[in-house]
Amino acid sequence: MGATKYEIYPSEVVEFTEILKAIAHPARMQAVLIVAESTDEDITTKELKAAIKLSQATLSQHLKVLTHSGVFKTKVVQKNNKCHLSYRIEQEALVMITQIIGKILKNTDIKSDNNYAVLQKFHSRFQACTNWQSYFKT
Questions:
Q1: Residue 71 counted as domain residue
Q2: Residue 54 pLDDT > 90, yes or no?
Q3: How buried is 17 (Cβ within 10 angstroms: 0-12 exposed, 13-18 middle, 19+ buried)?
Q4: Which long-range contacts (CB under 8 A, 24 or more apart) does 24-29 make?
Q5: Which site from 35, 80, 94, 123 is most exposed, i.e. has the minimal number of CB atoms within 10 Å?
């Protein structure tokens, strides 16, 4: 039996990918942006439901993913004599994302390289002289 991702990758990498997977859905990203924009108070499920036009069950599943991945933290608040589950961005998740992206940017030399253009030019000339595409036509 093969090793799992938890055994062969550093925990930092696994945690980072879990956060990215959690926010890699349009509804969840929209929820993150809505919660992040409201810095004065926590956002309740009811308020998110009004902003995101999904069924209650679907929205709850998305919020569960964000909470379990560590992007959101939750607490119970009382509004209008009713208890509501509210959401707030977990700053540690944002710090982790910025640290990892900072490492990538620091270690990446972003420059234009003329060799890429040469390779592309070679490929197009090679393709023209061999008529490579004709072999894949049915």
A1: yes
A2: yes
A3: middle
A4: 25/62, 25/65, 27/52, 27/54, 27/58, 27/59, 27/62, 28/62, 28/65, 28/66
A5: 80
For 6, residues 6+ apart whose C-beta sits below 8 A from its C-beta are 14
Rounded to an integer, the average pLDDT of 111-132 is 58
User: Residue 95 domain-assigned?
Assistant: yes
Burial of 19 from C-beta contacts in 10 A (0-12 / 13-18 / 19+): buried
At 11 the pLDDT is 82
Sheet holding 82-89, edge to edge: 43-44, 82-89, 72-79
Beta bridge partners of 37: none
- Radius of gyration of the chain measured on its C-alpha atoms: 23
| Range 99-105 average pLDDT | 82
Q: Which domain holds residue 103?
A: 5-109
Could you tell me the CATH number of the domain that includes residue 24? 1.10.10.10
Query: Does residue 47 sit within a domain?
Result: yes
Does 105 reside within a domain? yes
SS3 of residue 85 by DSSP:
strand
